[in-house]
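Before the break, one more example. Copy the sequence into your notebook; we will annotate it together after we see the structure.
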Amino acid sequence: MLNSLFQLFSHLLFIYLSHILLTSVIDWKSVFKGSRETGKIQVLLLFFAIALGYIVSGFFLDIVALSKLFVLQ
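Here is what the structure looks like once it is written out:
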């Protein structure tokens, strides 16, 4: 139960951090210049943030699991 809550919190935290970084670092209006579809661009940005956050969170959780194995041995 605690492990599942830790995984959920980790995923949500890294998705939030990746969304903040993607919106602050990259000027998406200049990338998609001439496009008036701002709603679709924001949804695409959200999907990028979810994918990136999930990948980084999985890496973080793997590092935590490996460190637990090293400590127990």
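Helices lie at 2-25, 28-31, 38-72. The mean pLDDT is 91. Try to locate both features in your own notes.
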